[in-house]
Amino acid sequence: MKFYRTIVFALAVALMTTIPAGTSARQAAELFTCSMHPHVVDAKPGTCSVCTMTLKARPMTAVEKELVDFVKAYDAAFLSKDLAKLAPMYTPETIVYEGSGINRGWKNYSETHLGPELKSFENLEFAHSNVVPHVLGPDAAYVTADYMIKAKMGERLMDSGGLAMFVLSKDTSGWKIRHT
Hints:
Elements: H1 2-16, E1 30-33, E2 41-42, E3 56-59, H2 62-79, H3 83-86, E4 90-98, E5 101-104, H4 106-120, E6 121-137, E7 140-153, E8 156-171, E9 174-179
Parallel strand pairs: 4-9
Antiparallel strand pairs: 1-2, 1-3, 4-5, 6-7, 7-8, 8-9
């Protein structure tokens, strides 16, 4: 129950935090935060969404770097359309919210949504940018990011993007996606 209360808190904070567009996919080893509102964290310089003070650079912690690296590894596995590489990045009970759909569990998501989708993609381009890690404890975190995806699916050309949030938990083998 404590984990889910932490997740609800994390989601509330994420909704209060803006994710600006335009940061390159290459992630710097620093984040930007407000000295008055430390929950406001960004991947690039700017102003605080609460008080408009200039955000100050600070180095990423080791755990924050782990989380950014996790997203980079996720992008690489997704681009390679490799379900075997993606599978260990999700918990078996993961819940995926996408558009108006919900997939409950990795098995359901990989067999009825992600797997068929990856097979249909041609000329796939995919990346996260503005990756901002939020560490909630030694085994809980969430990551906010922008994403872009381009692909051909049969006759249809997809050119889309949006905001992403990964709610993560850590076990002995590393970070895993619980919800996205």
